[in-house]
């Protein structure tokens, strides 16, 4: 992986790559998404086919830095996430940093249709982020957190995670969840992989939902593996 901006640098080491996505002293809501050149969030309904091995490595590094990984239920249903997010070397790295071996894995849902696989053999207690009047039928092992009375309030969601000591949050989408976080102006950082692909008409963007006000972010770096671009933008202060 090379850095194109701000200062060009050839072949970044693993520690340099981890340092390029640091934990912060204060709360952080970091989002990781992928897009095609023409703005598509999926190919044939999945995001994975836009990616590359370097994109998978980046996702792992971001998970290594996180206290909690938050994903919308639609993405869990389509992408088929299991409960374990990190391999043993990544767990060992976290422990060496004084972190728990695994980030907490949280799903955001209204309806509660979460595949069993999400709850199976979890290495850390899974979290269901929902609201008080929603149906609550989850395995006992899950921690169910109400983030509002009649809907999930994104600000309450972030505050509830912080109240559990989970202040470094990585959101991996999908588009409806990201749309609600953007609308509430909660995104501190967007890590966006740009795939060298023209997907053509018919796909969703990385955000979905009702229109909301725009927010500007500040470019922090651009990396490349030779095919994909890895953009990091942070909240403009
Ligand atoms: N390009 C990328 O980086 C990327 C990343 C992730 C996913 N994707 C793709 O996106 C597609 C899925 O899109 P999606 O928009 O359905 O994904 P999503 O945002 O992960 O899921 C939508 C569902 O999540 C729950 N949810 C999301 N936001 C919520 C909120 N603010 N309050 C309460 N519940 C909320 C609801 O679950 P319930 O229906 O359970 O109530 C909602 O139906 C898949 O094709 C996936 O491959 C792309």
Write the layout of secondary structure elements.
Blueprint: E1 2-5, H1 14-19, E2 28-36, H2 53-64, E3 68-72, H3 73-79, H4 88-96, E4 104-108, E5 127-130, E6 143-146, H5 154-163, E7 168-171, H6 175-183, E8 189-195, E9 217-224, E10 229-235
Parallel strand pairs: 2-7, 2-8, 3-4, 3-7, 4-5, 5-6
Antiparallel strand pairs: 1-9, 8-10, 9-10
Bound molecules: NADP nicotinamide-adenine-dinucleotide phosphate.
GO molecular function, one term: 5-amino-6-(5-phosphoribosylamino)uracil reductase activity
Keywords: NADP, Oxidoreductase
Domain Bacterial bifunctional deaminase-reductase C-terminal: 27-229
Report on this model:
This protein is an alpha/beta fold. The protein has a single domain (26-235), classed as Dihydrofolate Reductase, subunit A. The chain has helices spanning 14-19, 53-64, 73-79, 88-96, 154-163, 175-183; strands spanning 2-5, 28-36, 68-72, 104-108, 127-130, 143-146, 168-171, 189-195, 217-224, 229-235. The protein has a 10-stranded mixed β-sheet with strand order 1-9-10-8-2-7-3-4-5-6, sandwiched between helices. The two termini are 28 Å apart. The relative contact order is 0.23. The model has no long low-confidence stretch (mean pLDDT 96). Bound molecules: NADP nicotinamide-adenine-dinucleotide phosphate. Residues 27-229 form the Bacterial bifunctional deaminase-reductase C-terminal domain.
List segments where confidence is low: pLDDT < 50 over at least 5 consecutive residues.
none
Intertermini distance:
28 Å
Bound molecules: NADP nicotinamide-adenine-dinucleotide phosphate
Number of domains: 1
Keywords: NADP, Oxidoreductase
GO molecular function: 5-amino-6-(5-phosphoribosylamino)uracil reductase activity
Protein name: Bacterial bifunctional deaminase-reductase C-terminal domain-containing protein
Pfam families: RibD_C
């Amino acid at each position: 992986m090379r850095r194109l901006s701000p200062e060009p640098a050839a072949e970044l080491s693993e520690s340099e790559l981890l340092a390029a996505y640091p934990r912060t002293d204060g709360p952080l809501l970091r989002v990781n998404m992928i897009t095609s050149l023409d703005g598509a969030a999926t190919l044939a309904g999945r995001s994975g086919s836009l990616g590359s091995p370097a994109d998978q490595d980046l996702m792992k590094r971001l998970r290594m830095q996180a206290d909690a990984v938050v994903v919308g239920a639609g993405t869990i249903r389509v992408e088929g996430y299991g409960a374990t997010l990190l391999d043993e070397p990544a767990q060992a790295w976290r422990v060496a940093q004084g972190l728990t071996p695994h980030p907490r894995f949280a799903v955001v849902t209204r309806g509660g249709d979460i595949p069993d696989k999400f709850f199976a053999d979890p290495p850390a207690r899974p979290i269901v982020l929902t609201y008080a009047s929603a149906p609550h039928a989850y395995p006992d092992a899950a921690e169910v957190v109400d983030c509002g009375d009649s809907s999930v309030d994104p600000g309450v969601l972030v505050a509830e995670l912080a109240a559990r000591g989970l202040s470094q949050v990585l959101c991996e989408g999908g588009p409806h969840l990201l749309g609600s976080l953007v609308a509430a102006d909660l995104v501190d950082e967007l890590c966006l992989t740009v795939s060298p692909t023209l997907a053509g008409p018919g796909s969703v963007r990385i955000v979905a939902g009702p229109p909301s006000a725009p927010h500007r972010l500040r470019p922090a770096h651009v990396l490349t593996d030779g095919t994909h671009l890895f953009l990091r933008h942070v909240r403009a202060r």
